[in-house]
Structures are given as structure tokens and as C-alpha cells.
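Hi,

Apologies if this is the wrong queue. I'm a grad student, and the batch job for DHH family phosphoesterase from Candidatus Avichristensenella intestinipullorum produced an output file that my downstream script rejects. I'm not sure whether the problem is my script or the file. Here is the sequence I used:
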Amino acid sequence: MNETLHELACALRAAEDILLIAHVSPDGDTCGSALALRRALVSMGKQVRVACENPVPRIYADLDGAETVCAPEAWAGHVFDLAVAVDVSDVGRLGACAALFDAARDTAQIDHHATNPGYARINCIRSPLSATGVLVGELLELLGVPLDMPTARCLFVAVATDTGNFKQFNTDAAALRLAARCVEAGIDVSDISRRVFDLRPLAQTRLIGRALESMEILGGGSVAVMRLTQEDFDRCGALGEHTEGIINFGINTEGVAMACLLSQRGDAVKGSMRSLRPYNVARVAMALGGGGHEQAAGFTCKAPMEDVCARVQQLLLAERERHG
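Support response: The file is valid. Your script probably expects a header line. Output copied below for reference.
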């Protein structure tokens, strides 16, 4: 365990009034990790709040403590002893929670993104690592908090979602060790996997259809780009969270080595990218103001869809040429 993890543990022990922040457009790692840490800190007698700019997605709503997650406006003007960003790769991903983070008496973060610039006083960042949930699992051990079943469910969701249910390149030994500990704690793997990866509302199924219809194949079959406009969301009755997993249809297409899903919400376009080695989509994301991992990255741009799409295609093809 690294020194900053010990430093974070000390800060958590010393603080009484703690804010945990999940990133905008929350996924399973930020939700599961933040809620696992929340449960551990509550068991230590701490006053803990969890904030996120966006609501917890439906597929994570049954995790312990999910109902306590609030919009940052609920705590406007409050000064916390310690604010901890959980799985938040850069300050932009704090969203509307940034003001609460900046106002706190002390700041920390726990994360696994290679592009994280280290924006807190305590920067507990480890990369490469499959998921922030793995670090949170280590932190709980350091704090001496037993891994009970509700906490294990949170951590299992964190690591399972960030590894594509243990199928992606980043599935490492640490992820599997944590999963084994969660099973030993009594979780129902089959139930969690079905809820998170298999069940979907009709609106999401319709949205998937529109994304697949939009798919463009470039670079001799090695690059796939899908687009979802605001009209697509409206016609399907879909939410932003319903894009979860759609990118996998692109990267899992035979011959494709890099894939991007562009989703238009209001005046912004969100990009989600995946790649196979040796292609580095984090480099592409950073050129667009985003970041992430070499094989999984994202960005958000306030620009017309056509302009963003053209730029993304240009950058992905340049990344392809970089490797010959």
C-alpha cells in the first residue's frame, strides 16, 4: 500500500464531517467506490455525505446508501472538514460539486486514471489499476473496517463495471482478488451481473438500435464511430445513462481496433472511446479536453455534433497511422 493511501486513511480518521464526490455522468466505479467508502466511514462514526451532479443511474440504485446521494445544491455554503473525490480523473469531472470541494478545509482524491493531474492536497492515484474500487478495498483494510456483504456488493459493482464484467484488457490480479473477497462476503454474483449487465429498459434497447444504425466504419475497417443526437434520445424516451455499454458494440465488431460513441445532450457532445492495444485513445481524448486510460477514455465538448465527429475521426485515423 502506498504512502498516499496511508495519508488518506489518516485524514479520514481525523475528519468528522466528510464529503465524498462522485464524478459527473456516474458509472459503476465511482458509485460503487463512493458508496462502499461511505458505509465504512459511517461504521466508524463519521458524518458522511455523498454528492454528485447527476442522479445515480437506475442499475446502481439498489446499492447500499444510493438513496442518500444528493445534488451539490443540497449542501451549498456548507464547509466540510474533508472533501474526497472518488474516481474523478480531473477537476472538470467534479461538475457542480467543484465549489464544495474547493470550500472544504482539506481535500483528497482516490483514483486510478493515468491522466489525472493531481488536483487535491492528498492525491491517492494508482495507475495502471483496473478500478478505483480496488484502491477503496485496500483503504478499508487499512482503516480496519470489515468487508460486510452490502459493502462487498458496492465494491464488486465498482470493479466489475470498470473491467467489462472481467472481460477487458485491464482485468488484473488485484481485481480478481477483490472479487473473490466479495464472493466470500456473501454477494450474489449472478444477481448483480444480471441487474448491471443484462437487464435494460425498452428505451435503452431502442437507443442501441439508433446507435448501431449510425455506425460508420473507417480506416480500412479498424475504426468505428457511432452518433446519438438529442433527437435520438427524445424519440426513444432515453436518458443519458442509457448509453452505458453501447460503445462495446463498436469495439467488439470484428476488425475494429478503435471505437467512439458520440452522444449529444443539449449543447454538449460527450465522447466515449475504447481501443485495443497498441492504440491509445487517452491521447485522442486529451486532444479534446478529456482523458482516461490508454484503452478506455472520454471527453465532453461544447460544439456542434458534425464538428466534433469530424475532429474525432481525424484524431482516431491519426492514431491509427501512428502505429502503421
